[in-house]
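Database export, one record per block. Field names are fixed; values are copied verbatim from the stored entry.
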Amino acid sequence: MAKPPKPPVGPTVPAEELFAQGVEHQNQGRWAEAEAVYREVARMLPRASAVHWNLGTVRKHLGQWKEALDAFRKAVSLDPTWRGRDFNIGLCHQKLGHANEAAESFNRAVAAEPDDPINRFNLAAALRDLGRLAEAVVHTETALELKPDFIEAELQLAKLRTALTPRWHVPMMNDVERNAAYEAAITAAVRPGDIVLEIGTGSGLLAMMAARAGAAHVYTCEADPVIAETARAIIATNGYADRVTVIAKPSGTVTVGKDLPRPADLLVSEILSSDLLSERVLPAVRDARDRLLTPEARIIPQAGGVRALLAESRVMERTFFVEEACGFVLDEFNRLAPRAVRLDRIMPFRPLSAPFQVLTVDLADPQPGQSWRGHLAVPVTADGRCVGLLQWIWLKLWDGVEFENSPLIPTEASGWQPGLYLPRRPLDLMAGETVEVTSFHDGHNVWLSLKR
């Protein structure tokens, strides 16, 4: 690696002239030369704040983030009035992976210059790195308002919205069969004078269904403040703002007397994942039942289950398994592949068994701390090459009202993705034999295992 050139230092060169040489190098983009000169001037004038500031600036351009941070801190300690001090110190922290320190510095920068879009953008990035996505969205949106052509902020906002609002929200709202089933259950369950509690506001759709069905008032909680605010706007647009209250907090922090006037008569929830349990529906409903509902409260859904079938699919096999390519045997790579996947779309398949219920969970009286294990001998109904267990969910929403997102039933949109649980290798099966399916859940996660 080439060493940076030594500065033209001599006993007859005064510090001020040397500093001017550094500025010229800096203005011409000769960062290494400028850094060498400023280091020498800093040795000669250790109390000169401007020297340390310029040294920090050129080190920043050289990617020397720790050294730049030291220089900026020294400059600010000598003169705390530097404009951009918090931005530059925050940027150094951000590049060094100091997320908390970066956020604190950028927050001070925004407080000092609230109309600077760059400060807003960088604060949003630091908050994103801390997992504070909703706050990051607000500051990124503000940056775009201040600078409408800020393309980096457009990109950041798109990524934040994707992280905050997964793609399944929209197809779930457009799922005609799901909506009809929930509305039928809510209409049957709501009674005059009811207070309804919903967990998981989303768009506010189910809360408005309950209000339309005749509930005296609906309280719906949403942990994400951005989604909560959007739901409030939707509810107001539809004329239900006086009968539906959005509580922008997780259900576990909702309290009777503060958020609810009294315990609720009906609980509605749709915090159900594609494997039924991963959104932690069991502890959420159990907590609501213990603290937020009347003893005789009704609950929607009443029960849920996981269903599956043995599937043959050339497309799935080619997607999730490898045998050979170009004359080379590659099947050892299969042991690195995941044994369970979610399908963004239904790939063509042929059933090798009838659908079967793998497990059933009582959602009206859940026991979230309990795990469960089951075994099934599944009859094979057709000869074929089994690529895995194709899985979906079933719900009993109310007496006589059921719903499932079966891959055997075509649908335009669904927020729940079918799962595929894969054996170690595809199985060649014959009609009349049986295969063993083991199922397990720990209250939060579901696992299916297929063996011959």
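Remark 1: Confidence is low (pLDDT under 50) at residues 1-11.
Remark 2: The chain has 15 helices and 19 strands.
End of record.
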